[in-house]
Amino acid sequence: NGLVLLSREDKGAPLVSIQVWIGAGAAQEQEFLGGGLSHLIEHMIFKGTEQRPPGVITREINDRGGSVNAYTSLDRTVFLTDIPARHWRDGLAVLADAVQNACFPDDEWQREKDVIRREMAMTRDKPDWVLYELLLGTAYRIHPYRVPIIGYRPVFDRLQRADLQAFFKRHYLPNNALVAVVGDVAPEALRAEV
């Protein structure tokens, strides 16, 4: 199905680091360019699936001694967990469910838009971020890299839940993903589980 799996067995510590890279960031937003849709999805992935209601994804990882996080860049969105090796299958299952089956609950969607609006305001108060955005806007006059990852507030405010779902269905596919796993896990067992 085109999914790429990169793995490295490392028995130096009883830990496993799992990352799911999606080949979609701010520069791939096409008709939503400037909306910060990739960044919004990064936030929304952990807000629930059919199997795991809001709050459960993070709790399942934390309860096993792990941590979960994500980030968005210009050309990718990455979801990651670091977890004790004895729970790597659980970590992989939770992350896979979140990235494949996010359901974007409407109440969570509205709440998260407010969180991102606050992030936008905080970004405007940081000179290094303002300078970075000015640099990209100057260096890339036409290329989508000119657009800030978090988006522009007027474009962001126009986004609808249907836009989020359409972007997710277009980009969150096995042939646009890479799974990278490093740690105390046998490659054969990992491959079978992935």
Low-confidence stretches: none
Give the CA-CA distance, first to last residue. 12 Å
- In DSSP terms (H or I, runs of 4 or more residues), the helix count works out at 8
Strand content: 15-25%
The number of distinct β-strands equals 5
Global geometry: globular
- Class inferred from helices and paired strands: alpha+beta
Order of helices and strands: EEHHEEHHHHHEH
Radius of gyration from the alpha-carbon trace, in angstroms: 17 Å
Average pLDDT, to the nearest integer?
A: 95
Quickly describe the structure.
The protein is α+β, with helices and mostly antiparallel strands and 194 residues long.
If you had to describe this structure to a student in words, what would you say it looks like?
The chain has eight helices and five strands, in the order ββααββαααααβα. The mean pLDDT is 95. α1 (37-44) crosses α7 (161-171). Helix content is 44%, strand content 18%. A hairpin with a 4-residue loop joins β3 and β4. By secondary structure, it is of the alpha+beta class. A five-stranded mixed sheet has the order 1-5-2-4-3, with helices on one face.
Primary descriptors:
single chain; 194 residues; alpha+beta; five-stranded mixed beta sheet; 8 helices
List strands and helices in order, with pairings.
Blueprint: E1 4-9, E2 15-22, H1 37-44, H2 56-63, E3 67-72, E4 77-84, H3 88-101, H4 106-124, H5 127-139, H6 153-158, H7 161-171, E5 177-183, H8 187-193
Helix pairs in contact: 1-7
